[in-house]
Amino acid sequence: MTLEIRLVNTADEIETVAALAQEIWNEHFPPIIGQAQVDYMLENLQSAPAISQQIAGGYEYYLVNLEERPAGYLALVPSVDEEAVQLSKLYVKSEHRGGGLGKAIIDFAERRCDELGAHTLWLTVNQHNAGPIAFYERRGFTRDGELVMDIGGGFVMQDYKMVKSLAGE
Ligand SMILES: CC(C)(COP(=O)(O)OP(=O)(O)OC[C@H]1O[C@@H](n2cnc3c(N)ncnc32)[C@H](O)[C@@H]1OP(=O)(O)O)[C@@H](O)C(=O)NCCC(=O)NCCS
């Protein structure tokens, strides 16, 4: 299995991430947050222009390719002091789940934290997204409170914050 995790730089790569987002979000999230909120979030957070803007603001997007084909993506957001890194996006196409790709991506994110000198990797996850919550717990993350965020358009995100301390590893 050839796995490649590459930093997203070009307009084509950004389009590939946006296409993956369309596919994965429309498959996974309608039962959890409803189609209207999926549409709203895809347009405002995961369209090509939105992703370009995030990259300009310091997000690191990475494409995950299996056998040279896009299989998922992630985004990391280092804090200004680089003490902590947010795993802002982690999405694997449904046909590739359960085969260790998510684990490989978390390992990659932890290596990137190490390069940056960051001691904490954290994320937010929808409170009803049970499978990924179990996945993160399996990977050593613990819940660190609830986050309720108004994202506009009449939509509210109800998330858990989850944290993994990397100090001493
Ligand atoms: C969460 C996600 C990234 C996990 O990726 P994956 O490639 O399926 O995970 P892996 O195959 O590497 O699984 C790693 C471990 O987590 C466990 N795990 C994975 N999915 C799980 C689930 N739904 N429930 C319970 N455990 C799970 C696996 O059993 C495995 O355990 P092991 O360490 O004993 O082998 C992937 O399922 C996904 O993209 N889901 C949909 C999108 C999403 O909600 N993303 C998260 C947004 S915050």
Describe this protein with a few key phrases.
169 residues; alpha+beta; Aminopeptidase; seven-stranded mixed sheet; 6 helices; 7 strands; 40% helix; 36% strand; globular; binds coenzyme A
Please describe the topology of this protein.
Layout: E1 3-7, H1 11-28, H2 30-33, H3 35-45, H4 48-56, E2 60-66, E3 69-78, E4 84-92, H5 101-116, E5 120-126, H6 130-138, E6 142-152, E7 155-165
Parallel strand pairs: 4-5
Antiparallel strand pairs: 1-2, 2-3, 3-4, 5-7, 6-7
The structure holds coenzyme A.
Coenzyme A binds next to helix 1, strand 4, helix 5 and helix 6.
Whole-angstrom Rg: 15 Å
SSE sequence, one letter per element = EHHHHEEEHEHEE
- The CATH architecture term is 3-Layer(aba) Sandwich
The CATH class designation is Alpha Beta
| Stretches with pLDDT under 50, minimum 5 residues | none
How many strand units?
7
Which outline best applies? globular
User: What is the tally of helical segments?
Assistant: 6
Bound molecules: coenzyme A
Largest sheet: 7 strands, mixed
Strand content: 35-45%
Determine the fraction of residues in helical runs and give it as a percent range: 25-40%
Biggest sheet strand order reads 1-2-3-4-5-7-6
**What is the count of structural domains?**
1
Secondary-structure content class:
alpha+beta
Distance between the termini: 27 Å
Mean pLDDT: 96
> CATH superfamily assignment?
Gcn5-related N-acetyltransferase (GNAT)
